[in-house]
Amino acid sequence: MLQAYWYITKMKLLTNLTYRFEVFTSVATNLILMLASVFLWQTAYKGGAGSAEALSLQDITTYTILSITISTIFVCDVQNTVYYKIREGQIVTDFYRPIPLLACYLAEDIGEMFSSLLNRALPLVVFASIFFGIPWPSSFQNFLIFLPSCLLSYAILWLLSALVGLIAFWVMELGNMGNVKDSIVRVLSGSIVPLWFFPESVQTISKFLPFQYTYQTPLGIYIGNTSITEALTSMAVQAAWIAILYLILAAGWARTKKKTLIQGG
Amino acid sequence: MDAVIEVKDLVKEYIIVKKESGLRGSIKSLLFPKKTKFNGVNGISFSISPGEIVGYIGPNGAGKSTTIKMLTGILHPTAGSIKVCGISPQADRKAVVRKLGVVFGQRTQLYWDLRLGESFELLRRIYQIDQVSYEENLAVLTDVLKLHDFMNTPVRQLSLGQRMRGDIAASMLHSPSVLFLDEPTIGLDADAKHAIRNFIKEINRTRGVTVILTTHDLDDVEQLCSRIIVVNNGKIVEDGPIGSIIHKLTPHRMLVVELQEPCQDLTTPHATVIKQEGLKIWYQFEKESISASELIAALSQKLPIQDISVKEPNVEDAIREVYKTTATV
Amino acid sequence: MVSTIKHYVSVASCWARLAIQRQLEYPLFLFSWLLMIPIQYFSGIWMLKIIVDRFQALNGWDFPQLTFLYGLGLISHGIFVVFFINTWSIDHMVINGGFDRLLLRPMNVFFQLVASYVNFIGLIDCIPGIIIFVYGAEIAGFEWSLVNIGKLILVLIGGILIRAALFTSLGTIAFWTKRNGSMVGFALTMLERATMYPLSMYPYFLQALFTFLIPIGFISFYPAAEFLHADSGGIDLPLSFALWTPVVGIICFLIAGGIFKFGMKNYESAGS
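^ Those are the sequences you sent over. The predicted structure of the assembly is below.
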């Protein structure tokens, strides 16, 4: 069974290696975003304006570089895949595959993630290092905690994407809601501006939403803005959100499968 | 009468980049591409008079589509001259295109998202067709091609046969004097083919539209064309009335004889046995040397004949001869 | 001459009419778009406010001025997306032979490409742009005099021409590479960063690049700086920028048109 998943992952990896030009433009686009963001922070901190901040210019630079880098690895194509397959009416044939559908999509996305690690993340870090110096983590220990936190982040993001894909089964006519979710996540995850800079009221609300645990949590660990205890607590919250989202997804998926197979897609 | 299409010494050169396999090969072909020149069309000349229906046929890769694209102004020739209705498509594309109707079997010219009628309305404006002629044409075309039922259907929802009829109508709206048809009946059922062939015969008869037909469907050619031009390897191999070409290439006929009982000696000096299946024997004989009735008489003296039929060679047989004798490299 | 213009106008208006009808058929699909676009852009300006409030004005650009700039860039983008969205599909059309059909019609090919699809959905981008711009104009003290309005219109037209020139040139590369390589996302990101944020934030050589080589600075940054008497970075140009932008726009558009014509010639010689 696992072999089947590995095959899907491997195939995705191999096909991606052939899409060289697409990768090139993707890296270039992300590079522009990275450069523009760092320049903006440099302008904000100019003349010592940010000296009172807990985050130094170096911190926020590293934060931004890492944020964009991990965004290329957090591959959640499942939301678009599901949406377009529903639109084209192909989803029903996928249901007849012998292996669970969502697991298939996950395997594909993981394959894409591995290739992105090589094709996109690596070049981005190299370029960033040339422009801004190597974005070191605050300590090796922090780096070690950062890695599993990233995986938890990915899980949350992927589950959210799968849920959004699920919505498409019910309200496809409203368009691809994945775009809406992405625009919300972009802001509330702290991926562009860390939530620590936002007003208190926003930060309080955000604690009860899953979004800040996708980017701000691992990135905060990386730059050392969170103590070890805080980090572990956050990771526990990450795990909790994964559990919640998984249950919602499982329930939703079962109902949706029933509805689709009865209706015939 | 002035020729409506005149082509002289047409040449189209293609540059092919050789791609090598493997990683080293890919890098090499990126930095030092190996280019070879090759003439897709290698010196073609012909002229077509108004009102002819000409079949332009040949195997794949022979240079047919390339020639058509040059005639319609989509491609520029490397050498040679083209004049359509007295104008060179390269010199004045817009003027030439006004007089042409072009139908590509594989790709529609209709606007995918629009309803059929809306596509027509758009074409009326693009070709600046005056209201009176437009409505007349549209009425006739709708009638003959039976478009009433799907005038308001988006083009992307049409069946192949419907789309083909729509395409043909679209190509005739602006009353062109020349109609190019590239694989117009491909994928269509017998009824649809029949309707389209009738339509082509009609417009040629009533309006004198010159038709150039490119197709692999030799039934189309047989039914419609008075003249065929056969291309192979970028050159013209045959050009003339369909009857004489068939006669020239396949000067024999087939006599199929069914015997009452098996026989030993089937040979005859007047014909050759091509095939034998049980009691059925296929004899091939030269039209010039002996007539069918004479052969039948000669054979019935020797053989106990149950049944006979005579088969004429058709265009397909003739074309196969052409391909045989001018085999590609 | 007049009859040609009439001809082209008649065809363009027919296309526009049909485009609206088509796009109005399934209005519900726009729902996700209607949600996403405002969220994206309003949160964008919100984050700028947070940064400016917490740190300082960006190179002398305070929040009202930043808002003005952001809105102006967004309106310019929105109008472009309405009229010129087909410039994004040039490489697709080259690959699947779409230009063959255009060559068979007695009209200019580039015109057919651009006029055949009026993307009214782009207006959804314009609306937050207008809101943000008008708000920014208010708090920045922009004077709505007739002269200013005239200048604004010229700037918008020039900005759209510059954008069209950029995407046309990028798409025309496909005539030679014959490959499906979309630089559209890349160009859009570059445009967003240079037209909705102050160009003066970037290193000098980038400012020079976006002024003299790929003049996207003229789309909204320089005009905004001129309107608000704000710091235009290291580059100082004489005369009013509102005059420069349409001029630059026309020049760029003509150059891009020439490149496109050259590309078409190559297409016609090499086939697809």
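Chain A is about 75% helix and 0% strand. The mean pLDDT of chain A is 86.

Shout if you want it in another format.
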